[in-house]
Structures are given as C-alpha cells and as structure tokens.
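Re: the 209-residue chain
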Amino acid sequence: MKIQLALDLLDEEQALNMVKMVGDNVDIIEVGTSLLKLAGVQLIEKIRSITPNKPIFIDMKIIDGPEREATLMANVKADYYSMLAVATDTAITKVLNIAQKHHAQVVFDMQSVTNYQERSLQLKNLGAQMICVHKNCDCGDSFNEAFNEFIDIKAITQLPVALAGGINLITLPEIKKQLKPEVVIIGGTILKAEDPIATTKALRIIADS
C-alpha cells in the first residue's frame, strides 16, 4: 500500500520543508490544488530537486479545457494527475490520449458523482486505469460512505483504487485490513502533526505491515 503525501497548504516554503522532512517515508508527493494555484507549476521542479526519485501527483481536478490542461501536465512531466469523474466523456478521452503519449497516469476523482457504480464502469470503458474515492469532511462528506463506495468500485471495475479523506493513525489499520487500497492519500494527519516525521514513520509501518 502506497502513501501519498497531500501538500494541501497555502505556503510554498512550508510545503518544501515538509517534503524535506518526510519525503523519504512516502511513496508519492502530491501538489494540492490550492498550493498549485498559489505557487504555480514551477513548484514541481523545486520538489523534484529535493526528492528526485519520488513520483509527483498534481491535483489538477481537470474538468474543462482538457487538451490545454493535459498538455500542461505533459510539459511539467507529471507522473500522475487528477481529473474529475464528472467531466464529459469527450474531455476524458482527450486527456487519456495525451497522458498515454507522455507515460502519465490520470486518476479519476469521484467527488460529486451521484451514481458511482455506473460512472466507474463508464470510466473503465473509456480507458481509465485508476480511480480515487475522495470524501471531504470539509464539504460535508461522511468518511463511512467511502467504505461501501470503495468496495463497489473495486468490484465493478477491477481497477486500482486510491482512498482520500480523513485517514489517520487510527483509521489506517482498518482501511488496510478491509479495503487494501492501492494508495492512501494523507494530508492533515501529517501536515498538522506535532512531529510530522514520527507520524509519517508510524503511518509507513502500518502501510508496510
């Protein structure tokens, strides 16, 4: 099980310091949407200079301007980037085609999808290779709903599924036991910890156990 560090911050220096502190103990570094808006894509090279061997996920949440957005991701050599599953099929096809040419992986964020069973199967048929079940408590989502959604999507699509939202040292053991996600996306638990290094190492032990 891979750990993805979500840099959901509004401070570039803080984000880079966090990468320096805990980057070695995670598998993927994520540039959060707000941080991307603040710092721009130039931040990606700064992160690479700190952790050159870590894949970088850019939380673009693409929904509009698919060719333009996917081309930007190609230009900065993103390893992974997100697209909203509620985007049109035409937009999804365009983004997947560009991503494939540049050896990147598009992760489809299921936020705001009403019929997730139907949409996840449609995504697979369009060529999706990875889906993310994302429950945001700030938006009123219930993390408990993520379990059923995750299980259904994995059974329906047989695709790797990532899980994001509300993951911490208490919930991670149960998540690993019941769901076995390909990737767990963790932000606040690390970013707000009194000791981010110790917290990340503890999460690492659970993920690898």
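The chain has a mean pLDDT of 95.
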